[in-house]
Amino acid sequence: MASTDADFAALSERLARAWASSWSIKDASTFTALCTRTGTWTDHSFRVTRTGTTSLANHYNLWLHANPDFHVPSILSIYPTPQGCVMKYIGKGTMTGDLAGRWPATGKAFEFVGFCEFVVSREEGLIEKLEEVYCRDYWDSRLEGYRSETKI
């Protein structure tokens, strides 16, 4: 789809920015439209991998159920890679719902720095693999008062 390396880098950056924006839209189909039908999302912080449109939508919706106001207010940097790009971002929200029936709601606001690697299909012009990592301890009720205020 992308005819040059510069075109591919621009496409990859647009997809990363659209992923970040999808959290404000609150619609899983907006996110899954960015991915190939067999796309994979690995959330390393929770040690889960989801593959395929339905599974990706379920993962997105589970997160929004637990954190309905979650959004990405800041993209700190995006670096092109031969396969797509890496994005560093700020994620913010409040855990008002349970997460997957395993973690109860805390009602606490949080902010974290996250990193995503986007592997983009040159043929389809869509995300085929997303690798995400961030600190998940921000919401652990045992860490009373913990809030990352990293300013980069």
Describe the protein.
By secondary structure, the chain is of the alpha+beta class. About 25% of the residues are buried. It has a 6-stranded mixed beta sheet with strand order 2-1-6-5-4-3, with helices on one face. The longest helix has 21 residues. The chain has 3 helices and 6 strands; from the N terminus they run ααββαββββ.
Largest beta sheet: strand ordering: 2-1-6-5-4-3
Please give the number of β-strands: 6
What percent of the residues sit in helical stretches (DSSP H or I)? 25-40%
Mean pLDDT: 88
Number of helices: 3
Quaternary? single chain
Strand content: 35-45%
Alpha-beta classification: alpha+beta
Largest sheet: 6 strands, mixed
Shape: globular
Low-confidence stretches: 139-152
Which characteristics define this entry?
single chain, disordered C terminus, 152 residues, alpha+beta
Question: What is the topology?
Answer:
Blueprint: H1 5-25, H2 28-32, E1 35-43, E2 48-51, H3 53-66, E3 71-81, E4 84-94, E5 109-120, E6 127-134
Parallel strand pairs: 1-6
Antiparallel strand pairs: 1-2, 3-4, 4-5, 5-6
Q: Summary?
A:
The chain is of the alpha+beta class and 152 residues long.
